[in-house]
Structures are given as structure tokens and as C-alpha cells.
Fold these 4 entries.
Entry 1:
Amino acid sequence: MTPVELLIRRLGTAGDGIAETPEGPVYVARALPGERITARMTGRDRAEPEAILDPSPERTAPPCRHFGEGCGGCATQHWAQAPSIAWKEARLAEALTRAGFADPILLPAAVTPPGRRRRADLAVRRDGPAIRLGFHRRGEGAVLDLLECAVLDPALVSLLPALREALRRLPALKREASAVLNLLHTGPDLLLRTDGVPDASARAALAEFARAHGMPRIAWAKGEGAPENAAQLGPVSLKVGGVAVAPPPGAFLQASPEGEAAIIAAVLAGLPEKLPAKARIADLYAGIGTLSFPLAGRGMVAAYEGAAAAVTALDGGARASGLRVKAARRDLARQPLLVPELSPFAAVVLDPPFAGAAAQMPLLARAKVPRVIYVSCNPAALSRDAAVLAAAGYRLVSARLVDQFLWSAQIEAVAVFAR
């Protein structure tokens, strides 16, 4: 197909450059605003750049070889950090403005450095005698075999060649699998989801792999089933909010230690300055207690979480530390806290999943809780949920971008609302 010449006007929410044509917008990966390029159309509204005729002064050399190969792990490695952060801040401000908070002023962004991401959710595919282990290609189901990564902690990257070889020899991997790696304080923790069942010899091989690489646990599940321990050589532990917990296999963690610390700091700074010693604070979607434990230094915390294994980890950490945290299992999408349950709290902190907290927000607004602190990983959900607070008379106290998803289009933020 004959290349077309395009002028990139702006960036879309996925980090693609957008060119306006008579047929409509065209999305171009790895292109920047202001650039004039030639591109090859790959679909009705998609194109791949072939040559950059007028490069942006903000363009920079990507630090990872896989970026140019279409790795789906990153979207903006070709963009200088300052304009990239400004773009994310503008998207956060726009989301809050749409919610009804005019001209929001953002606190300085907290930016995670390269090589600090401690969690990887990797795809695995058997291709004849070889194994592909890595992230999916952008917009495709194909798996890009990961040989290096500028985002992940080097301790996880260094494990990949040996893991690839171990998976190649694993009969329980017939065609496709996934591997979730979490870097805990006790070492790397692995959850394998395969399309077959490991026999006794395969489990012994996994145990030997764990021993060779300082991994106290390897868990396994078939498909989306419940995980079980395939090899446990010692206890697992991670300090969250200063408290040691035993995370379940594949547990959700904040992406980096720096990102976690920035979120905790923003949440604590968002609390009312003067709280009585017996003030009650709710932590909704509490996970394994990342925010519950720091909050316990400011009041009595009621932590609500829907995943049973996470509640067990949270409760165990609370009991061992003696902190004022009471954990309860509750699916807040199906059974949100009611107005009488919410009203006694001096502050409610919530860190919902990507879809947000649509079921909980109207009840939270009606409860007239003095302070609401919302940790968001989705500007669209934040805008929708914050609009409920704006309609109920809340004002925006502060908002801060936490850029722990380096070189991606994803946005993490902490927004503080008060009545």
C-alpha cells in the first residue's frame, strides 16, 4: 500500500498520535504532536509510521529495543519525560473538570524512576519447541518474547531466561499460559496459570527451579481456577505500609515501592488536620492493607475488601502488628456500604478497580462523610464518580498525579474531596 503523509495533531488516551483526515481520525503508534510523517495504513483508522519527515523537538531515543517492535508494555518511550508528565496531568485535570470541579490545581507529580516496577503479568505461548514469554504486542494477541525491559526491576528481568527454559520443559503448558511475577521482600513470587495439570515430576521440577532462584513459593492454577501451592520452600512476606503481610499468589501490589510511598503520602496528607484519637476511617477496596496500615496511625480503620485471600493477608498483618485495623470481606460492587454504615466515618478512602466505584458513590455522597480520598487508576471512572461528589456539594481539596506506570498511557492519581 502506498504510504500516506500525515500531520499529527494531538495524542489519544492510549498514547497514539492522531491525524485528522477527510475520512476521519487516524491513530498512529509512536508518533508525537506536531510531527509530519509518512505512514502505512494497517486498518480503517490505524497506521504504522514509516518515516518522520518533521520530528518533534520532544522526541527522544527509546531506552528499550522492544519499543520499536510493538511491545504493548509501553506507549511513550519516544517522548521526553516533562511533556509526557504534562500530558498526563492535563488528562487528570480534564477528568476533574468534567466532573464539575472547575480549574483544578494539581500538586507536583510523583514520578517513578525506570527499573522499579515490581510486578509483571506476562503472557506465555508455546511455539513448537520454543516458548514466548513477555507482553502482548500493541493491539494484537501475539506475544513478544521479552529479552530486556526498562520498566521492570532487574531482579525480575534476570529471572526471565531461566523461567522461559523451565516453561519449555513443563508438560502442563500445552499451548498458552500466564505468569504473574511479584517481587516480595522474601524474593520473587510466581503464579503460573496453565492449560494443563502438572504431575508430580513437574511439581518437583518447579520446586527445584524455586530453590535455584531464591523463590520461596511457586503457585499454580489451571486457567482461571483457584491457585494452589505447587512449591513452597519458605514463608512469603511483603511490607506494605510498614507492616509485614503474607500476600496470596498473584496478589495486586502497587506497581513500585516509590509509587506506593507517594500514594500513601498523598492519602495521609488528604486527611483532616485534626482528627480525634478515636476517629473512624474506612478503607474501601483495601486489598492486602497498603493504605489500611498507614491510616491506622491516624484513627481506627475499618478495611473492606472483596477477595477472600487478600482479606486473610490483611487481617493477619493487622493482628500481628497490633494496629487498629478491622478487616471485613465485602464485595462493594454487589453490596456497597449503606448510608448508616458510612455516616460515622470521619474519612473514607477508596482505591477501586479500573471500573471505579459506581455502586458505592451515590451512597457515599448521601452519607455526607466530611472527607473522601479517591485513589484512581482510570480518569474516566474518576470523572464519573467524582461528579457524584460534586453534585452533593463536595469541593476538590487537592489532586496529585502518581506516575508509577512509566512510559505508559495509564494514569494513577489521588484526589481529595471535602464537604
Note: The longest strand covers residues 46-54.
Entry 2:
Amino acid sequence: MTHRTAIPFPDGFLWGASTAGHQIEGNNVNSDWWRKEHDPAAGIEEPSLDACDSYHRWDEDMDLLAELGFTDYRFGIEWSRIEPVPGTFSRAEIAHYRRMVEGALARGLRPMVTLHHFTVPQWFEDLGGWTADGAVDLFVRYVEQCAPIIADGVPYVCTINEPNMIAVMAGAAKAGDQGFPPAGLPTPDEETTHAVVAAHHAAVKALRGKHPDIKVGWTVANQVYQALPGAEQVTADYRHPREDVFIEAARGDDWIGVQSYTRTKIGADGPIPAPEDAERTLTQWEYYPAAVGHALRHTAAVIGDDTPLIVTENGIATADDTRRVDYYAGALDAVAACLDDGLNVRGYLAWSALDNYEWGSYRPTFGLIAVDPVTFARMAKPSAEWLGSLGRERALPRAGA
């Protein structure tokens, strides 16, 4: 039998939760995703509509996070709100997001601002998206216009969330795939990979030129590819275009975000689905809390010891909050073990602060905080109380013998 011990947080350790603008704000009507949600041919289960109404209720969200004991909040700003038509920037929307930054600071929450979290303006998609001529310059222009939002008090900025998934989705679209395979990911589009890497590097350069005190990075979706005996090279070849190339692109950044939820086993013929009797989450992923530890170790092995690691997303979609607590407990055991082994882990941000719009459906509930779909009332779950208490105690739990 085990009991839980604790280790102190390292100095400056980020302890918080993450969200994405489109998934919680509501009525992001100028984005490509809004258009897709309302296109019958896209086969989207349900549209985002009002989402969590966090565009108007962000202060309630931050109040809860601060009261629970969290010290950090990662949230996204929406390009399509700030630049609804090309070359026209909304001063009102820039002021709105600046109020969010100031609101976080006033509550003792360090803001991590994500500049791009999957959605783009409709006009950018119409130009051809990331692979269009001049796309990198257009993204940098938008990033530079965000200066009033991030210039004062924002310690961390994420340029692009999960660029490997952007390339994977582009690859699936080009191949005409309507869904993901039973295990693993579609082949990323190579042109999109080059484009988002170039956009990231250009954005980092622009941000450092104007905001040298801000720590800049991006986040990668880590699939935790595990090789079966004899399939080590197959696994390395499979993983590199889907993950490692994006980790390698972060060399020289101020930090890299590690995001993991489950694992993927690889055999001689490629990915192998989880066994039929494996416990699965509401997203049908295998329940595997140790994933985050593997993801941290692999990322560190690829990028080296000099780049700090931040867990920017980790969590579980479940209707059983006791399983959420168990999942987080197992995940934090893995994080604590990484710290014990000397990995340069600087923070842990849970996904997600709120039950939100999970890219086509509200059914997968990842949130620490429940949201009533009619009244938008917020209710912290027991998992939020438990995870937040660790922030108040400034101690990271781990299993002990």
C-alpha cells in the first residue's frame, strides 16, 4: 500500500490551469472554426455558440482559480477578434484582452498568453492559411499588434499551440480523411510543418525585439509513442514528423510546453490500438496518468537540458470526478519523479479550467470547474479543490512507499 508524501514546489513554479479562447469565450463569429461549425458538410456534432460565455465572465473564472489556490492562468486571445478583416485591428478587442491581463495580475494570477490556439480569421483561411504567400508576415503583423496586451506584466507568451496538430490536420485534409485512424495520427503536411515553424521563429524574433523580458515558447502535443520490442526504429521514424521536428524547432526558446493525455504503442507495422478491456476516457483515449512523465522525459532528451519544460496541458475527460483526482494524482507522481531526477520542469497547468467546447462537442468534460449551459453558473468540482489546495500548500504530491 502507498501513502502520499509531498515535495516543495521549486522557486517560481507555475501552478495553474489552461483554457483556449474559442473553446470558452463564445460567439467567435469571424473565425474559421465558427464557419466550419455551421457548415453541414463538415459533420460537426454541435457548434460552439455561447460556449462558456467567458468573453463576458472571465472575471468569474479568474476569481475561482485564485480562490482555489492556483497561481497561474493560461488563456488564449483570438486573432479573428483582433483582426476581423485584413489590416484592420480592433482597439476595443485589444483593450478587452488587456483588461484580462490586468484582472489576472490583480488576483495574483500570473498570465500566460497564447497568441494562436487552433483558430484563424476566416480571411486568413481564405487566403490559403499557413501555406499562403506572406502568411508568416501576416502572423507576425498580428503578433506585433498584440503589444498593448502583453507589454506589461505578462511573463510568458505562447506563440502557437500544438503546431504538430495543425500540420496533422492539414495532412488529413489533403488526404481527404474524415477522421483519425484507430491509433496514432495522420501524416502531417510537410509544407504546413515548414510554415508554422517559420511563423514561430519569426514571432519569437519579433517578440524578443519588442519585449525582451517576456519568456517566449510554444507547446507540442506529445503522444507518448512507446515502442514494442524490435520496433524502436519504426517508432522513431513514425514519431519524428509528428512530434520531434516541432520539439527540435523550439531549441533556443525560453521554454517549451509539454502537453500529454495518453500513450500510443507502436509495433513493427505501426500504431496499435489499446486493448478492448483498457479503461478509456470520454475521448476514447486510454486512461494512462503516467503519460506526462514520459512526455517530459522524451522532450528533455530531444531538446536538451537548457530549455525549461512547462506542462501546459494535462488532464482527463471524464464524468467521474474521482477518476479525475486519481488521474491527476498519478500524473503528479510522474512530474515529481522527473523533478527528483533533475529535469528542468518549471510548471504544471491542468487542462482544463472549465468544462468547455472540445472542438465539435461539449460531451468530453475536461474541466476542473463545471459550467451550467443555460445560466453559465460556475461550480468548482472536488478535483479543483484538491488540485488548488496543492497550490496553497506550495507542495507537489507524490506516492511514497
Note: The two ends are 7 Å apart (CA to CA).
Entry 3:
Amino acid sequence: MENKEINKKKPTFFWSLFPIITMILLLGVGYAIIGLSAEVLMLVASVIAGIVALGHGYTWEDIIDTIVQKLTKTMPAILVLIVVGFLIGTWMIGGTIPMMIYYGLKVINPNFLILTAFLVTSITSVCTGTSWGSAGTVGVAIMGVAIAMGAPLAIVAGAVVSGAYFGDKLSPLSDTTNLAPIAAGSELYEHIAHMLWTTGPGFIICCIVYTAVGFSQDPGSVSSPESVALVLASIDELFRINIFMIIPVIIVLYGSLRKKPALPIMLFSSGIAILNSVIFQGFTLQQSFDASINGFRLEMFSGVNVASLGSDMATLLQRGGMKSMLGTVLIAFCAYGFAGTLAVTGSLETIMESLTRKVKSRQGIIGSTILATITTVFVTSNGQISLLLPGEMFSKTYIKNGLHPKNLSRTLEDSATVIEPITPWTAAGVYMAGTLGVATIQYLPWAVLNYTGVIFAMIWAITGIGVPKIRKGDKCYAEHVILNEAV
């Protein structure tokens, strides 16, 4: 056993970086350009990372054990992902999502649809602290309205993602908002206030862009009164809409606000939706269970000529079910397989150490943090790891160079929390694509808030505006002095 441990070597910077560069090239060329399967490409990258690990003395048992550890930590998120499919299926057959679509079509002005999508999901995510929940509930309803109106789905989906992650960055209920200051050594509410330097301008830009794009659309192409009236009439004919349809939404929002465990709350909400489907919509329990597993289908209505409803209604209503999330789960497993194979050798730590060794200037430190954090997102496909690992690696660098830790916590969120959902192979990226029905690459340009944070982070780093230094009286001042005396 001792000989096996002695033979294990930590890879050099080149061999640490090699599997990552290979993965980026495979996905960048194979997936984004040629259109090859991302899952297979991730497996190829995992094989290459495994060969590097074996060449440095690590065994197959070491690799598989690390992969299992990664997947074990990820299982709660994967379970939530599967239950979201269950939730959408039950909300559909129970009439909850049709109700939101129905009233959304009645009150939303087509010119303000994109801006409304952004603002509504922003408010929901700030109140609940959950980007996935906001996109999976309010976001799904808004996408239904967009489909019915014939609005550009990629733009609307981008606005939904922007709004969902506005709250994920700023809400004290958000796990990432709490995790970033823990990783960086700052305080929660000073971190939230400091986030406004980058998120505030991004919010304003989003409002301007989404308003301008909304008014640039030809009203005739965005919304046909006849088609909207047909959708309204069809929903009115198919579903019995009443106040009980909103109860499943209230349950999820209440659970999020009270920070209750996500899975029980979502399952309870789904249970109420199933009762609604049986009591008010006239479906059988068998049909409700079928919708929760396989998704809702228009054929479930008895005595209705489905063909007469048109393809728009099928696109609008046929969705959800646990099976609809299996593709998302598969790519998550492949991504974490690569992350586990890379982690066994400590390659990521080697790269981080090389990045921080010679960085001295303010813009160099913040720029290196952004680069390292985005790299971690690309490699691990996990936003939480991408906050914690760079936070640990850079915390002393910031303090030693006199930069307040809240600069680090802000930069971590600007380059991890919001970058994850616009990266196609991450769990957040595939979740948003699967939930909203728009490919990550398609909504990426319109998820404005998700990349303006990095832009403003570098602007403030270069100018020095909004990048406070450590002062006497700060908790980290003593550590700053000690680190500089040790040099």
C-alpha cells in the first residue's frame, strides 16, 4: 500500500491543464460547431483525464472512488432536477400552468413581454432565493405565453434566465449568496450591498435592452389577436380554471421563503396539483401519475378532437414528466465523471497555485480570479465548487494585497453563479435549456445579466472604482499586516 502511495505523483502544470484544454476543444469544436453529442465528448475527455491520472501512478480504484464522491455530493441536485419534471407534469395536468398562461395572455402587452419576463422572474428569485425554482415555475408559464404569442423564444428565455439569476446573486435566501462570502471571508450583507456595483448596472442594461427589443418587434409578427384568442378559447374549453389552481405555486413560494427542504415542498405541491387534476379537471389518478412520469399529453382529454386544436396547443401544453429530465441527468453524470477523474490528481489545485503565484496588481488579481473561477465552472460543472475552490485559493492573495474580501466574494459570484447557466454542459445550463425548451447556446446572447457582471468587474478593477481596500478596524486588517510582515 505504501509503495502505491509513493508512486503517485502530482501532475505538472502542463499535464494538469492538458485534459481541460482537450475538453474545451472537444466541446467547443465538436459540440458547438459540428453538433456532436456533448455526453460522448465529455466521456472522451474523461478517458484522456484518466490516462493522465494512470500515468501519474493513480489506479482505476482511485479514479472511480473520486467519481463516486463527486456524484454523491451531486445527488441532491440531481434529485431536485428529476422532481422538477414531476412538478411540471402535475402542474400541467392540474391546470396550474395553463391558468398562468391564460391570465398571462390576458394581461401582458406583447411589446413588454420580454421586459416582463425579466422583471417577474427577478422579483420571484429575490423573494425565494432560487433561480431553478423561479425558472421552473414563473419562467415556464412565461415561456408558454411567449409560445402562444409567437414571440422570439430565445430572447424570452434569455430574459427569464437573467431574472432568475438576478435573485440568485442578491437574495439572502440564496445558497450561492451565502456561500460566496463564506468562501471569501466577507460578511453576508456587505457582500450583497457590494454586489450592486456589478449587478446594478447589469439590471439597468437588461431593462433597456429588453424594452428596446420588445418595441423593435413587429406587433403583427409577435402577436396575432386571432391566434391568442384561439389559445385562450382552447384553454378555457380544456381546463376548469379557478383559484385552487394557484395553491401549488403558493406552496413552492412559501417553502422557498421559509427555506424549507426543496424536495418535500415540491412533492407536496405536486400532490395538490394531482388532487386538482382529479377533482376539477376530471382526469383519473392513473392519468395524473402518467403525466408526472411521462409528461402531459393532449390525448389525455376524452371527447376532444386533438387535431382541431393545432400544433401550437401541443407545443404549449405537452411538457413535463420525470422522463423529460433524463437527458439532463445523463449529461450531469458525464460532466461529474470528468470532474472526478480530474480531481483525483489534484490538477485543479496545481492550476490555481500557478495562477496566484505572480499576480500583484489589482486588475491582475481580479482578472485571475475571473479566469480561474470560469475555468472551474467549465471543468467541474458545479457552481458551488466554483465558488469554494477559487475562494480558498485567492483569499490570502486579496488580503495580502490590501483588497477587501468582499471584492473576492463579489467576483466569485460574477464569474461562477451567473456563468454556470450559460455554459451548455453544466447542470444549470442543461436545466435551464430543458425547463425553458430553448438550447443554452440560443438563449446565451440574451441572458444579458449573466455576462455583464464580468464586464463591470473588470471595469471597476481597472479604474479602481468600487474596489475598496482593507482599512484599520476591518476584521481582516490584522491578517493583512501579518501576511505582509512574513514576506
Note: The chain has a mean pLDDT of 83.
Entry 4:
Amino acid sequence: MIKERGINPEFVITNEQSLRRLFHAVTPLAIQKCQDSLDGHAQEFIRRSPFICIGTQNSDGKADVSPRGDPVGFVKILDEHTLAIPDRPGNNRLDSLVNILDNPSVGLLFIIPGFDDTLRVNGQASLVNDPDILESMRVDDRIPKLAIVVKVSEVFLHCAKAFRRSHLWNPDHFQDRRAMPSLSKIILDQTTGAPGDDAEMRKIDDALEVEYKKTMY
């Protein structure tokens, strides 16, 4: 158990002026690189990306970041100001979707395996079930129930420092998933309790893999 530690209020940053005193001034290029539409480079990056994170927040300030992944180019470019993201089957909590209904402002982070730089896109989202848009997102003969359509307001490439610091794509730094319990066991430990019998736990893990195959789309 980690002992709770309080934070001395003396060291809490409470205003932008105090914050900016800790850092060098922003460079002109860092400001100029921000675009309000998807140019050719941004579109090419999006077409290559199989994975994004989408950040949302409701009107009370409750935030959520959700991963979204699919075959390369799954986010559709409708025009230079508009993107459409398929909503695939999940756990039906609908956290991101409910947040969007409450507060349409979203932030997207596009990731390409092997690329250290990322693409950031901000904008206003809506939930759409237009059949023509959904049909373009068909995979394995299944279409999503809806799409998240984002009207783009801000686009810029983000530098490679975070990915290089983390060695995210370096196999020498990959960790063995078996070093931690399976997803099923962790959730059961946190809720109703996992079975003590290893064989029974393996059956539960195997059932989850079967469920993945049946409900991916």
C-alpha cells in the first residue's frame, strides 16, 4: 500500500504567469506550425495511422481519454476540415460519446507504429449515423452504429521527444506481458474476486480471447 502524501501548497502553480516563468519563451515556429485545416502532410499522416487517442470532457470537467484502433487509414478524411472516426464495439460505457453530447470539444492524437512524431488535431465533434459515411467504414461485412465526426480547428505535428524518451518502439525495451496478471484476473481482483484455481482462471482468459474474435466488429 502506498502511503498518502500531501502536496505543500507553497509549491502548487496556480496561474499562467507563474507557470511561464519556469520555461523559455515559445518559439515562433512552434506557434506558426499550428494550422486550421488538414494540409497534404496531415492527410498523409492520418491515412497511415492505425491508432488514435481521443480526449473528451463533459461540462462538469470530468475528462476521459479513449484509444481507438483499426486497419491503417480507418479515420476517414471527408474534406480538409472534417474527419470521421468509426465507433467500434466496446464495453458500452459510452464515456467518450456521452461527453461529446455534453461538450463537443475533442482532442485527437494520431500514432503510427515506428514513427516517433505524432499528429495532434483539435476540433468540435458530433455523433453521426449517416448511412453513406458508415458504409465507408465497413470491416468484415459489419458497419459501425455511428461515427464521431470532427470539425477540425487546430492541426499540428508534435515532436519525437516523448516517444524517444520512452523507447516505445525499441524491442530492447519491450516488457513481458506475463509479468502482470491477465486483464480478466485484474478486473476480477478489483471487483467480485478472481478464482484461486489457475485452471479456472485460464478458462476465463481463454473465453475472453474467444469473445475478442466474435465481437471485434
Note: The first strand starts at residue 51 and ends at 57.
